[in-house]
Amino acid sequence: MYKIKNIDPDSDARTGEIKTSHGTVKTPFFMPVATKLTVKHVSPMEITEMGAQAVIMNAYVSYLRPGLDIIKKVGGAHNLMNFQGCIFSDSGGFQMLSKAFLQEINDKGVKFADPFSGNKHFVKPEDAIKIEREIGSDIAMCLDHVADIKSNREDAAEATRRTHLWAERCKRYHDDHENKTIYGKKQLIFGIAQGGLFKDLREESAKFIDKLDFDGVALGGLCIGETKSEMLTAAKWQMPYFSKEKPRYLMGVGSPEDIIDMVSIGIDCFDSIYPTQNARHCHVFTRKGTIKLDKSTFKEDLSPLDPECDCYVCKNFSRAYLHHLSRSFEWTHHRYLSYHNIYFLIKFMERLRAAIDKGEFAEFKKDFNANYRRKGQKK
């Protein structure tokens, strides 16, 4: 289901294709986050028009609302969202970091609170995959124990051990149900490696998850408070132990500068709330770096957000107008800036893939570092 196309001669960057029940996804790629079956401020139709190949939803949150009954009634999450691209489903492991969700955790599973109703739900690894089957996602993520990045070694080791135990159970349940959703569609499953910021745990986890022969592997528990240097180092520890024939997914990363560094070491898949979260704070991506649009310097700037961008927002509105909306507390600016930031990342990944295919990745990265990362660009 995964085919490597080209490998950069000067790094581990590569392009490839993941074959899913809802189309072939070209790697490396970025997918917007649709936790509640929607990307914040951007419609599924617009996501498709931008060229986004995939989104990631949260299976546990969707199990709570809108609930499995309505999802099954319409034939799966794709139909309910009206999005026919690839859908990844996160099991809910990330919610273990939230005090609003986590109640208790042991080897059998995890007890979550329902923040909507106050009810409690005990979710076993098998339950998580069952929910993902009924949702109908193209790629299901295992339930893993996501520990706080500042955990001591003992706690990180315990979370890693439990992640391995649950990975075996997730894989077994998935295999026992013919690797298909309840709609008869082929469903892939990715295992998640953990290990905190400890080299031996990261290596051990990568080896263990890889041996279970998942369709793909993910690096979990990163981009949750560690430094960029720590994140890159932890990822480098694990990469040698993942099969090159499988897609590698770094969960939670969505800044252009982090993406290009991680692509360089062989990461294929990314997701993050980063573009929409930044948009809500008026941080706008451009080819010359990030700008802070609510600053007074843009009050009379009649140029587009990014002169090199051809998105709907850049073709129709000026920085001055969008600055005005942000200072007037008009919620439409969240929508416009979110649209632009997601579009920017989708097109950034297209250019990045083209550079690898043409053997020009080194030049692409050099140009990126000289422009996007140049000093003093943030305003």
List descriptors:
single chain, 379 residues, alpha/beta, TIM Barrel, 2 domains, 8-stranded parallel beta sheet, 3-stranded antiparallel beta sheet, 16 strands, globular, disordered C terminus
Short recap of the structure:
It contains 13 helices and 16 strands. With 379 residues, the chain is an alpha/beta fold.
Q: Distance between termini?
A: 44 Å
How many β strands by DSSP? Answer: 16
Beta fraction of the residues?
15-25%
Strand order across the biggest sheet? 4-14-13-12-11-10-6-5
Low-confidence stretches: 375-379
Question: In the residues, how many domains can be counted?
Answer: 2
Question: What top-tier CATH class of the largest domain fits best?
Answer: Alpha Beta
What is the helical fraction, as a range of percent? 40-55%
Structural class: alpha/beta
CATH architecture of the largest domain: Alpha-Beta Barrel
